[in-house]
Structures are given as C-alpha cells and as structure tokens.
Design a protein that fits this description.
With 356 residues, the chain is an alpha/beta fold. Helices cover 49% and strands 12% of the residues. The chain has helices at residues 7-12, 33-42, 45-50, 52-65, 79-83, 105-109, 116-119, 121-134, 147-156, 164-172, 174-198, 215-232, 255-259, 274-281, 300-314, 334-355, and strands spanning 71-72, 88-91, 95-98, 140-145, 202-207, 244-248, 265-267, 286-291, 320-324. Helix 15 (300-314) links the parallel strand 8 (286-291) and strand 9 (320-324).
Length: 356
C-alpha cells in the first residue's frame, strides 16, 4: 500500500520535503490519559507489550490526537535480554528489573542459544497489525536497544546512576564483554530484520547509555557493534530503502564517527546545537532532533519560539527530522504536544515555501 505521507522517509534520504517531518520519542506513553487507561486494562506493562492488540492500540493513540509524520512500534528496548532468559519485570515507579544478572565471564558463556525470531514473535505480530491499521497513513518505525545499552541493563540488573558494575565488568573482563556484545549484536540484527520483514519501514537503534563511555571505549564497545548491525540489516526488502537511525544520548562528541557508520540518520540530544551538528557532518546523513523535552513543560509561546529557533538553526534544505532530544516525560500536558507538532509544521512549511 503506497504511503500517503512519506515526509519522514524522504527527509531521512535527504530528499525534498514540503515541511519538516516530526515524531516524538515515547510518543505513545504515560502523558496520554488513553495510554494509562489501556495499560490499566492490560494489567501490566509487559502484558501491554506482549499483546499485539494492545500494542497496536497504544501505537495509534498519539496519531489520533496529533499530526505526527511517523508511528513508532510500542515495545521496550529490553525485549532481547528477556528473550535470553534474564527475566524482565517492572517495578512500579522504579523502572525495569531483571531476575537474573550477568556478573562474570561464566555468566556470558552460560547465555542460552535462542531464536530471537521465535522468542519475540509477539513483537512482529504487533508490527504487522500496526502496518495494517495505519493503512499507509505514515511510515512505521521499528527499533532496538544498542548492544552496549542492553549489556548495561543485563549486568546492572536494571537502571543505574553511575553504571559502576557495568564499567567494572568492561575494564576487568574486556574479552567477555566483547563476547556479550557480539551475541547481542547478532540478536539485534535478527530482531530488526524480523521487524522489517513484518512491515517496519525505518529502524532506530537506541544507544541510551553510550554517552557514559570514554571516547576509546565508545568506539570499541558501542559504535563498533552498531556499525556491524547497520551492515547486517535488510536494506531493500521490497525495492524501497529502509533507513536506519542511530541515536546515542550525549553522543555529539562522536558525531563524525557515528555519521560514518553507514546509517542514514543520526539522532541528536539537546546538548549539541543542530547548526553545529550539520556543519560537522555536512550532507553525509540526515539529522534527527533535538529539542529539550523539558521545553514541553513551558508556556505555549516558549514552545513555539524554541521550535522556530531550532528550525532556523538547521537552515534550509532537507535532511531534518524534528524530534525531542530524548523521550517525552510523563507529566507533560497533552495540549502542549499539539502546540509543538503544529509549530514544527507551520514554521517549516513557511521556510520551504521561501526556498522554492
């Protein structure tokens, strides 16, 4: 089915667009009352993720409210560790936890051989269902966590303020860490390719914790494996390109290296100016970002002013996907999201008309 709105894909491929496409990390989430109602109905966060009907419903909810240019699969980045038998669960108000953790090289060697395609079949069922529900309205974005980010959770057993245990493992057992990261990279390739086969039209790798590493460790233990994933992905399943986006939070210091990975787009957080980022990478890749999510808590006139500032900082031409610099926070007023999305389309359309 042909896409009715392909701005997102065109921008990632640096083709002309009539206005800058916009979507939002965590756009299906707790800031929406309808999401909270569906999660309550599902019973738990994992039940929500593992039920294709519920996953489709919450994916579609923000598109019913806002004029987003992309839908993103509703799932969690930690599905792969769960498939390896780590026992993912969620504590209310405390985030993800694992029943089993990796603390020694022997634990890495003991990881079972699993079929990611079989273990995570519910994800691909959700992708297929969402594509059908979208009916060509906008592209569907699939995603995974990066190997390094997945490894930090598997070693720490959950989130962390300093990732001391994960870094300790990296420095004391580098060979075992590489073994773990290679296992995870292979799993991510299988996982994302299965999403593409099921209908995902773009994929994003979330390297949430790459920015905690030193420059040399980032290249060796994070970017190296994301590059392998990009190389291993299905490029044109039906003759059309499936763009890949890499997003490393606090990764602006390695922007050129990320842009050289083979990806189509680089996600930016708010710690680097988009004008600086564009000057550094030139026309090599598209850029996605990068408004501070906290701006959405400000008054509407402030939101509009910041959207306009970022668009002007990027400048003319294609290759920009507007997004937040990280996920939307739960307490944001849903009306402020409408201000944000409408401002992106309004101001970028004016800019596009001026450059025609």
């Amino acid at each position: 089915m042909p896409l009715k709105n392909d701005r997102f894909l065109r921008a990632l491929l640096k083709q002309p667009v009539d206005r800058t496409p916009v979507w939002m990390m965590r756009q299906a989430g707790r800031y929406l009352p309808e999401y909270r109602a569906t999660r309550k109905q599902a019973g738990s966060f994992m039940d929500l993720c593992q039920n294709p009907e519920y996953a489709c419903e919450v994916t579609m909810q923000p598109l019913r409210r806002y004029d987003f240019d992309a839908a993103i699969l509703f799932s969690d980045i930690l599905t792969i560790p769960d498939a390896f038998g780590q026992g993912l669960y969620f504590e209310e108000g405390e985030g993800p936890r694992f029943k089993k953790v990796i603390r020694s090289p022997a634990d890495v060697e003991a990881l079972p051989d699993v079929s990611i395609k079989e273990e995570l079949a519910y994800v691909y069922a959700a992708v297929a269902r969402i594509r059908q529900e979208l009916a060509g309205r906008v592209p569907l974005l699939g995603f995974s966590g990066s190997p390094w980010t997945l490894a930090t959770y598997m070693i720490e057993g959950g989130g962390s303020k300093d990732f001391r245990i994960a870094k300790q493992f990296l420095y004391n057992h580098p060979e075992a860490m590489h073994m773990l990261l290679q296992r995870l990279a292979d799993a991510v390739i299988e996982y994302l390719n299965a999403q593409i086969e099921a209908g995902a039209q773009v994929v994003q790798i979330f390297d949430t914790w790459g920015g905690i590493l030193t420059p040399s460790a980032y290249r060796d233990f994070s970017l190296n494996y994301m590059r392998k994933i990009v190389q291993g992905l299905i490029k044109e399943p039906d003759g059309s390109t499936v763009p890949t986006i890499l997003f490393t939070k606090n990764g602006g210091q390695w922007l050129e290296a990320i842009a050289d990975s083979g990806c189509h787009g680089v996600g930016l957080d708010w710690t680097i100016g988009i004008d600086e980022a564009r000057a550094r990478v030139g026309e090599k890749v598209a850029l996605q970002g990068n408004m501070d999510p906290c701006i959405l808590d400000a008054e509407p006139k402030v939101i509009r002013a910041e959207v306009k500032r970022i668009l002007e900082a990027f400048g003319s031409g294609s290759g920009h996907v507007f997004n937040l610099g990280h996920g939307i926070t739960p307490g944001v007023d849903p009306d402020h999201v409408a201000v944000f999305v409408d401002a992106v389309h309004e101001f970028s359309a004016e800019s596009c008309r001026q450059t025609e």
